[in-house]
Amino acid sequence: MDSSKKTGIANIIRFYSAWKRTNSGLAGMFAIIIIGVFPLVFRDYYFDILNYKTIFYYKAVIIFAAIFLTVNGTFLIVSIYMGCGRNGGKGRQFYASDWSMLDFILIAGISTLQSATPAAALWGSGGRFSGLLLWIAYAFMYFAVRRSLKLRQWYLDLFLGTGMAVCIIGILQYFDMDPIGFKNLMDPGQYYMFTSTIGNINTYTSYAAMLAGASALLFFTEENRIRKIWYLLCMSVSFCGLITGMSDNAYLAIFALIGLLPLYAFKNLRGVRSYVFILAVLGSEFWGIHRATKPHSGAAGQMGGLYRVITGSHYLIILVAVLWAVYLILCRMMKWLPDTHPLMREGNRGRWAWFAFLSVGIVLLCFALYDVNIRGNAGNYGGLAQYLAINDDWGTHRWYIWRIGMESYGGFPLKQKLFGAGPDTYGAVVMENYYDEMVMRYGEFFDSAHNEYLQYLVTVGLAGLVAYLALLVTSIRKMIRLAGKQPYVMAIAFAVICYAAQAAVNISVPIVTPVMLMLLAMGVSGEVETDASETDA
Questions:
Q1: What separation in angstroms does the CA of 342 have from each of 158, 267, 273, 276?
Q2: Taking 70 as the threshold, does the pLDDT of residue 531 lie above it?
Q3: Residue-wise over 127-160: b if at least 16 C-beta within 10 A, else e?
């Protein structure tokens, strides 16, 4: 091969490397805005926080899209001028999560076209602005980041750093300190309904859930001492934020974290020790927050549900003491045992044992539900009975909201069962037959299912729900695989898992969902760098 041809090939390689670096830089800047700036922005405190954050997100996506498409169009024109088509790589260009996102957008489009209120479905104006247009923005963000970003651990440090600011503000507000003056003009009756720079407490705890999931996994996987201390701080603050958020949806995220973490952590004795330490920190925070909360404060009056069940138990302090004792015993055992000991080597026995334990727990939960609701033995379960007894008032009227949603869905024709009534049109669906009943019984109108999965079933149909679940499952599966080479990717997987758990009783709003989907895209983007390295090898 002559020198001029070699020079030409080298120039082409440098050109495509520059193209790739530019895209990664643009995607990285956009990711910084969404995970590092977006959670903190506000305009008129809580009075327009949903509107303003939605507009901010749209503007951020539009500006990013304009720059991203212009830059890539310019590179494409130059590549044509150079006489070569862009080679996207030798590997697969689309993955299961990509197809799932495309499927969801296509189904949402069909749902919008067949909706009785297509304008509302397009904009989401009848609900929380989560219409087709917002999902198109989500999809563009997903694909641009998924295919361009080279994930680095410092992105997660930025996510946690911003989250610490959000949580600290929320924690201080819980203790009646308002450092940013958000509550100066609020009706005192609403003081504890909104918190930090996120807004509604349910939305705030859905954000804190992702912080808890990510920080706990980073603490578990990190080897560097300084970083490990940083992640311990983040984990402790995010746990405190979840607890002081005063929303029971936080406990679903906590249960998902402590229930599923051993399936990853119980590789050896070191993993068991770290898990016990995390449990001890969590238990200590429950005990400490309860002790620090003034009995007659407004926060104490608002705290209820599972918080009272947990902190009201006389066994909490005993449990915390036992956890710390077990942790110290495990530390001592690890000093005695050689690295070659079976307990110190990696294996799957601990994970299989935990899986069996979880299975038994699920069976017992099912029996408890049967025992309370069919056999009428609620008195046997103490304070837990309020969570096991299913009626219209369960979960702050959530069961009523779910029941009318399921009844409405049951009355849909087949086509509507498949594609739904239109994105974010749950309110229009239930208003048709249940408006008077809602107002008479509860004095309010429910425009959301307070369950993301039921929301998608009613609004984008069975096909849309399956596509959304496939997006979550395939993305998490991909991240678990990537975590073998990049352990910090598992932190994103658990952040998404914690979000998905609390979503069973919560609302998707463009305050937290953009952050979750950005994290999801970042987690799957690890494939880009891995594939590239494998191809180069």
A1: 38, 11, 15, 19
A2: no
A3: bbbbbbbbbebbbbbbebbbbbbbbbeebbbbbb
Q: How far apart are CA 400 and CA 393, in angstroms?
A: 7
pTM score, two decimals?
0.93
C-alpha distances out from residue 378 to 248, 362, 369, 397, Å: 20, 18, 9, 19
Cβ of 517: how many Cβ atoms within 10 Å?
Answer: 24
DSSP conformational letter for 36: I
Handedness of CA 456, 460, 465, 467 (dihedral sign): negative
Mean pLDDT of 442-460: 93
- Does 383 or 411 have the greater pLDDT score? 411
Cα separation values, 67 from 26, 29, 37, 86, 145, Å: 8, 11, 19, 20, 14
Tens of pLDDT, residue by residue over 394-408, are 888 899 999 999 999
Average pLDDT, rounded, for the chain: 90
Q: How many CB atoms lie within 10 A of CB 92?
A: 9
Kindly give, in sequence order, each residue whose CB lies less than 8 Å from that of residue 322, ignoring residues fewer than 6 positions away. Answer: none
- Other Cβ atoms less than 10 A from the Cβ of 470: the count is 17
Q: What angle do CA 77, 81, 85 make, to 5 degrees?
A: 75
CB 55 within 8 A of CB 511: no
**Per-residue model confidence as pLDDT tens digits over 158-211:** 999 999 999 999 999 999 899 888 888 888 878 889 999 999 999 999 999 999
DSSP 195: E
Widest pairwise Cα distance in the chain: 88
Q: Report whether pLDDT(494) > 90.
A: yes
**DSSP letter string over 242-291?**
HHHTT-THHHHHHHHHHHHHHHHHTTSHHHHHHHHHHHHHHHHHHHHHHH
User: pLDDT, tens digit, for every residue of 201-241?
Assistant: 999 999 999 999 999 999 999 999 999 999 999 999 999 99
R_g (Cα) of the chain, nearest Å: 25
Q: How many helices (H) and strands (E) does the chain have?
A: 21, 2
Look at phi and psi of residue 347 and say left if phi exceeds 0, alpha if psi is from -120 to 50, else beta: beta
Residue recorded with tokens 């299913």: 390
User: Average pLDDT of 135-139?
Assistant: 98
Q: Work out the end-to-end distance of the chain between its first and last CA atoms, rounded to an integer number of angstroms.
A: 23
Least Cα distance to 517 among 40, 146, 59 occurs for 146
Residue located via tokens 């994290």: 519
Distance of CA 299 to the CA centre of its chain: 26
The candidate with the shortest Cα–Cα distance to 446, out of 402, 385, 383, is 402
